[in-house]
Sequence to fold (240 residues):
Amino acid sequence: MITYIVIPTYNEAENLPLMADALFRLPIPELHLLIVDDNSPDGTGAVAESIKEQFPGKISVLHREGKQGLGTAYIQGFEVCLAQGAEAVVQMDADFSHDPKEVSSLLEHLKGADMVLGSRYVQGGSLDRSWAGWRKNLSAFGNLYARMILGLPVRDVTGGFRAWKRETLQGIPLDRVKSQGYAFQVEMAYITHAMGYAIKEVPIYFAERERGESKMSLAIQLEAARRVWSILLEYRDLKK
Fold:
């Protein structure tokens, strides 16, 4: 199975070589990595080009002119992967909050689902042990808020560690997706469910990044909260 992993990057020069090395140590044949870099000031784009030489024919880099947002990075990344013949596409962060060793598990479960989601909120899943209580509560509330409004059976609607079948991404109207940040994950989960695709959640441990700075901000969280209501209205035609 031809598998592509899409990783959007912005100032991930420290993490990217380590992540690439970890991914290509996995026992996954026909594995490819697509890096989508938004002209990172720390030179992540140049680092991405340099590690291509270490893994000939395995890494592609999509250079964008500036910081255009997580949602558009993934959408463009998905389109490139499909054009290059991907049969399965995995999306994940570059900062090791998503354990690369779990990629194999997601792909194994994808055999019985249309999309597999690495979940912090199903039995066996958890958040970083060092997180303060208020951070864990805020994360849990954000998920509950989106789930209740949208009527989603998915417990971790903001989780960004996912595996997709080619046919699922081809069936989803990617050109309609507008959200960025957490809201992008919510919107994609809602469309997938509304169109009747089978979603499976598998437990993961979500770790705090060890290197670099978090991209999360209050503005991103507020955008996600507002977008939930728009998502509910924009996709009424898809609801079965």
